[in-house]
Amino acid sequence: SLESIDPTSNLTALDIRTAIRNSTGPRPSLFVPEMAFDLLVKPQIKLLEIPSQRCVELVYEELIKICHTCGSTELSRYPRLQAKLIETVSDLLRERLGPASSYVESLISIQRAYINTNHPNFLGAAAAMSNVVSAKQERERKRLIQEERERR
């Protein structure tokens, strides 16, 4: 599943640091520059291509299984018709497998070509900083509560 894919599995802290430094030049940056972000994210999006193509293959295999098992009792009275129907549907599915794979490949390419950082679901720099500050404040609050309990 998509949850099992770690998008940072092949990124090291050094890779990230180098990309940020290369995109900002000698002047340090408070946030990750968009150029560095693109440089780091595009290869990660490419990692989705193999699982996506595997998904296309699994859907094809499942449709073939359904094709072979969904014959009715009336249809089984005509075995040649049933065989021809299964053959025709299988040919149609096989014929559409290539275009479906190409479409998935083009969708991945489209996503790599433009990363929409203005999307409402995209966590921007301000929201990221807000989350970091909130998490730090929450940890500090819990630490103070723990210290207060230990004093009693």
Automatic annotation (TrEMBL):
Name listed for the protein in its UniProt record: Dynamin stalk domain-containing protein
GO BP annotations, alphabetical order: endocytosis; intracellular distribution of mitochondria; mitochondrial fission; peroxisome fission
Gene Ontology CC terms: membrane; microtubule; mitochondrion; peroxisome
Pfam families, per the entry: Dynamin_M
Superkingdom of origin: Eukaryota
Species this chain originates from: Photinus pyralis
InterPro entries named among the record's database cross-references: Dynamin, Dynamin_stalk
PANTHER family reported for this sequence: DYNAMIN, DYNAMIN-RELATED PROTEIN DNM1
Taxon lineage: Eukaryota, Metazoa, Ecdysozoa, Arthropoda, Hexapoda
